[in-house]
Design goal:
2 domains; OB fold (Dihydrolipoamide Acetyltransferase, E2P); 496 residues; five-stranded antiparallel β-sheet; alpha+beta; transmembrane helix; membrane; disordered C terminus; 16 helices
């Protein structure tokens, strides 16, 4: 009667020899695939490990000073705007005649420059730092700002009446706000995700190590960019997934889906980089790298970037899909593989929609200055999207999205096959009812899965038991509530 389908399987019984054999076979299949992949990846990483040599690379770092020149830091005491020729005024920290603390100049004629009277952190007299025009116009400087400036006072002739500034603004000092944000981020992650969040942060540190010690030096030395990106990304994903989520069948399933998505993304990126002639034309940083060494390939760097940029979102969708399949199965262990796949894919489709928006808006936000410039050029939309300025961002969005979209059904299929083969079920209380995929669908697949995925092991089982347990009130608006209302004749008397 009603909508409660209680199934008479004994979850507390010992698994049968057939079930144990099936579980062992599934784990062996996962190991047979992932162990060779891991070994091959590590071997390739050792063979391709960069030497660290910078022979043949010529560049002049803007952060290297000439003899007698230093980079100093200080805090701004006052800001003035005055004639650019008055660079050798008194360094008393007070505006010279004709200026005021608001930065407005009372003098007429001549070019006007912004100066910041700055107290050096190392001590000493207040110095007069000239602020770059682009900084003064776009952001400006305020009293209390910490800045880094170039100290030319010790260089002969720098202050000998030539009109050249002795102290030149270089950058803002951002150590404190960035450190505060980093601490806040770590605290929030650990407070919400606890031990798993802490392990994820450590995994992020490991991923950064692979990036700066293997991928970036390899690109500088001219290693094959496609292989470099695939090997580095696979190592990162193996470390991050197992370290953050532990060694389990569901993590191995997510890793298989991630590797598949990486392979698709790499193939598409290799084709798109060549077919669309992505060469970094018009990019100042690309031009700088080209002039440093003939070994550095800008198209190779772009190809590697296309692969790496989608790692985070790809990892997100694969681990979520794998977990969703396991939780759906544990709520409805008698569901057929076909129905389990369909239920999990309903969750996957919602995830696809949200992640596509995530990628598109993330890249759009990073490219806002370019988007504004292109908009002001008033070019046709199709021409703007395929231009040198925007084509790389567009292709990055499309390649990354295709890879993660295809990874979702593949991960779901692998997870269904593995979970059905292993027959993993959490122990249930004697006589506790279970639900089928159809009943779970009635509660809303995405909402139900989100609820169970975010809860712990015991809470997941309890949630499954409460979905349709006898003697509990029916969920408002559910099919069970409607049928109970029909049996009562809508009299509200509670008769069955």
């Amino acid at each position: 009667m009603g909508h409660g389908h209680s199934h008479g399987h004994s979850d507390n019984s010992e698994p049968t020899p057939q079930a144990l054999a099936s579980r062992k076979r599934a784990n062996w299949i996962l190991a047979a695939i992932l162990v060779p992949v891991g070994v091959l990846t590590l071997v390739a990483m050792m063979v391709m490990w960069p030497s660290g040599s910078r022979e043949g690379i010529t560049f002049s770092s803007p952060y290297q000073a000439a003899p007698g020149v230093t980079f100093d830091t200080g805090r701004i005491q006052s800001v003035v705007v005055e004639s650019c020729t008055q660079t050798n005024q008194s360094n008393t920290g007070q505006p010279t005649t004709g200026q005021n603390n608001t930065g407005q100049s009372n003098q007429s004629g001549g070019s006007q420059c912004t100066f910041a009277f700055t107290e050096p952190d190392k001590g000493g007299d207040v110095v007069k730092v000239v602020i770059n025009p682009d900084v003064a116009m776009s952001h400006g400087v305020d009293v209390g700002d910490s800045i880094r400036y170039l100290n030319l006072s010790a260089v002969q002739g720098a202050n000998a009446g030539s009109g050249a500034p002795a102290y030149v603004f270089v950058d803002f000092v951002r150590s404190i706000p960035i450190a505060l944000l980093a601490v806040l981020y770590a605290a929030v992650v650990i407070a919400v995700a606890r031990w798993r969040g802490f392990r994820a942060l450590l995994g992020l540190v490991g991923a950064y190590f692979v990036l700066v010690s293997f991928i970036l030096p390899g690109l500088v030395e001219g290693k094959p960019p496609l292989l470099l990106a695939l090997v580095g990304s696979t190592v990162i994903m193996i470390g991050v997934l197992y370290f953050a989520h532990g060694f389990s069948a569901r993590t191995s399933t997510a890793l298989l889906g991630t590797i598949f998505g990486l392979s698709i993304t790499a193939l598409l990126a290799a084709w798109a980089t060549d077919a669309a002639n992505l060469a970094g034309v018009g990019n100042h940083d690309a031009s700088t790298l080209v002039n440093m060494s003939p070994q550095i390939s800008i198209s190779g760097i772009i190809l590697c970037g296309l692969i790496i940029s989608g790692l985070g979102v790809l990892n997100d969708v694969t681990i979520t899909q794998s977990s969703a399949v396991w939780e759906l199965y544990e709520l409805a262990p008698d569901t057929t593989a076909r129905k389990l796949f369909s239920s999990a894919m309903r969750i996957g489709r919602d995830h696809i929609a949200s992640t596509v928006y995530t990628i598109a808006f993330a890249y759009a936000g990073a490219a806002l200055p370019i988007l504004i410039i292109v908009m002001l050029y008033d070019r046709p939309l199709a021409e703007a999207l395929t231009s040198a300025e925007l084509s790389e961002e567009v292709i990055r969005t499309l390649v990354g999205s295709i890879g993660l979209v295809l990874a979702i059904p593949v991960t779901t299929l692998i997870a269904v096959l593995v979970v059905k083969a292993t027959g993993m079920k959490r122990p249930a209380a004697a006589g506790a009812p279970t639900v089928t995929a159809d009943e779970l669908k009635d509660t809303g697949s995405l909402a139900a899965a989100a609820a169970v995925v975010s809860s712990g092991p015991q809470e997941n089982h309890d949630a499954g038991a409460r979905l349709d347990a006898p003697g509990r009130p029916a969920r408002p608006g559910s099919r069970r509530a409607q049928r109970e209302a029909e049996r009562r004749g809508d009299t509200g008397d509670g008769a069955s």
